[in-house]
Amino acid sequence: YYRINRDTGNRKYIQPKHELGESPYRFNWQTPILLSPHNQDILYLGGNKLMRSMNQGDDWEAISNDLTTGGKKGNVAYGTITTISESPFKFGLIYVGSDDGYVNVTENSGGSWERISDTFPKDLWVSRVIASSHNKARVYVSLNGYRWDDFSVYIYMSDDYGSSWKNISAGIPASPVNVIKEDPDNENILYVGTDNGAFVSFNKGGNWEAFGKGLPNVAVHDIVIQSEAEDILLGTHGRSIYKADLEALHEFGEGQPSDAVVFSTQSVRSSGRWGSSFGKWGRTFEPSTTFTFFSIKDGKQTIKLFSENGTELNSISFDADRGFNYLDYDLSISEKAKKALMKENTKIDIKKAQNGNYYLPKGTYTIQLGSSKNTFEVK
Question: Which of 87, 146, 154, 293 could form a disulfide with 131 if both were Cys (CB 3.0 to 4.6 A apart)?
Fold first, then answer.
C-alpha cells in the first residue's frame, strides 16, 4: 500500500512490517484498509492481525493477536483478514472478518476481542462485515462459499453486537454473496451483490427484489453509495462500474407496497425548439422525461397523464416487470388533448411542431398508475 499526496504526486510505501523475531504477517490478495470514520488520520489494515496507524500510515501497531485459524502452508496466503468495519457511533467498536470464517469484535480499540461467528457455517470466506450507521448495536455479515463449491446465500444481521444472529438471506436465488451494504439514509433498505447480480430489500432483509435493470448478469463485487447525490455505484467483475439513482427507493417506507407506486419525476424546462431541427438534415430536438414506478407483478400496465383540471391527456400501455420500472415519455400529446388544454386555459396557444407533434405546455401534470399518483412540472 502507498499513500499518495495528490498535490505533489509524492508517494510513500505504508504497508506494516512485523518486528524482528516475529512471524511475518499474512496479507490477503485483497488486503482491506479502512479510514476511521472518527479521524481521517487513523488507518486500519488487516493482515492476520489488525493493524492501526494513528498518523496516516507512517507508523503501525498490532491491536490484536492472530484473528484467524492460524493459516496454512502454500503459495497463497490463507488465514487473513478480509473485511474491517468501525462503528460510526463509537471509536474503537470494530468488527473484522477473515477468509477462514471468523468474525471478531472489539469494543475498546483492541483491548479485548470476542469471536462472534461460532454459529455460522464453518470455514467460509467472510466477504463483508458492516457496522450499522443507524443502530449502534446492529451489524451485518455476508459469507461466500464458492471456494468450497457451496453456492448457498449467507447473510446475517445482529442487533446485539453479534451475540445472536438472524439469517436474512431468504428470497435470493442460490449464488455466492460478495457484498452487503446498508442504505445511509433509510435503515430499512439493504443492497446485496452476488455472483449473479444485485438485490435490494426494503425491510431489513425480510424480502428481496432483483435490482438489475440495465445490469448484465455478472458478479457484483462492491457497492458504494454517494449520499449527497443519492447515487449507488456497483463494481462488477470485468463489466465496468454501473450507477443508479436512489431517489425513488428512498420514497419507500418500511416494507414493500401492496399496490403499484409512482415516484416523483423531475421538472422539465419547456423549449420552443421541441420537435424542430437546425436545417434540413439536422436531427430533430426531442424532449424526454422518465417516469419511475414500482410494480408488484409482471404484465401489462397503463400509465395515464392528466391536466391540472383532471382532463386525461395521454394513456401509455407497456409491459412491466415486477419491481422497479422506467418509462421514457417524449411529452407529446394528441390533437384532442391539445384542444382540451386550450379550452381549459384560453391564454395558451399550442402549435404543431415542425415534426408534426403537439407538446405539453408549461404547467403541472399528474401521472397515475392504478391508485398511485404523482405530479411533475413543465416550466
Answer: 87
